[in-house]
Every structure is written in structure tokens, then in C-alpha cells.
Amino acid sequence: MNGRVERAVAELLAALGVDPEGEGVRETPRRVAAAYAELLTPEPFDATTFTNEGGYDELVVLTDISFTSLCEHHLLPFTGLAHVGYLPGERIIGLSKLPRVVEHRSRRLQVQERLTLEIADWLEASLRPRGVGVVLEARHGCMAVRGVRQPEAVTTTSALRGRLREDARTRQEFLDLIGGARSRRGG
Hints:
Layout: H1 2-15, H2 28-39, E1 49-51, E2 60-71, E3 77-87, E4 91-93, H3 97-106, E5 109-110, H4 112-127, E6 131-140, H5 141-144, E7 155-162, H6 163-166, H7 168-184
Parallel strand pairs: 2-5
Antiparallel strand pairs: 1-4, 2-3, 3-6, 6-7
Helix pairs in contact: 1-2, 3-4
């Protein structure tokens, strides 16, 4: 596939009036193909879950998980922070798996709304928790460098499931916990 991508990038450069054999861009098709391969290839991982032997029944929340994805509309990156939480049922998950699922689902042409839902769906299917909360905050290259040119605009999306959606107190606790992360970083 890389050869095909390289040829397409060389053709794009030529269509833009750039000599693809010019000294500064001679390696650009290879570099672009490698960059897209990296951005669009998810790392496989195993969802390590454990029996909730201690009966832990409070929220587990991991904040400020960095992610980058590619907007499927413009092929420009969007980058941001994910805040992921769940209310355990019979199973808990290794904490490192929360950033891994965010990374895994972001490694494709994507829109932020769907990415948010896919992370929540994965947690629900893998853990069967009593509740799930996912909030993504991202800056979009397509809004920063073209169109409205708003590089500081942040898009926030959320997916709340189970008790985090149905129980106002549990939902508020989750939002307060991720809000504390925002205030610590000055956001």
C-alpha cells in the first residue's frame, strides 16, 4: 500500500505545481506514506481485565489521555485529551488499557463524535460496567488552518452510559472529577 500512497502523493505534488523531484520534496512521498501508515495503523492490544474481587464500587477515572486522529473530511489531524471513566461491575481493567483503547480507536480516519462513542462502546462490551463516561476535548486542524481559522477552538463531545447517564449524582461526580483535571492544567 505504501507504494500506492507514495505515487498518489507524488501526483498530488505535481497537481499542486510542485516538482516532485525537487531537492526539498524528493523524499516527501515516502515520508507522507510513512506518516499516514503510522497515523492509521492501530497497535493491537489485549484487554486485560480482572475479577473485581474487592467489590470496588466507586468510579475509576483516567483523565488527560492524549490522542491524535485524522479528520475523515479533510485528512487533517485533530488532537486533544480524553477523559475516560467507568463504574465497575464484576470486572475491572488494567489502567494502561484505557489509554490503549483511546489510541486504538483514534488510529483511523475518524470524526470526534464517533470516536467518543466507539470508546464508550468498547468499555461497555469489554467490562459490562454499571456505567461509562467518555469526554473528548480536541482542537481540529481543519478548523485551525482553513475555513473559519479558529486554532484555539476546542470541540467537546461526551458519551455517558448506564448510571453515569441515569443517576444525576454519579454523572456530576464524574464531571467534577474530570473538571478537576481541567482546572489543574488551567483549562
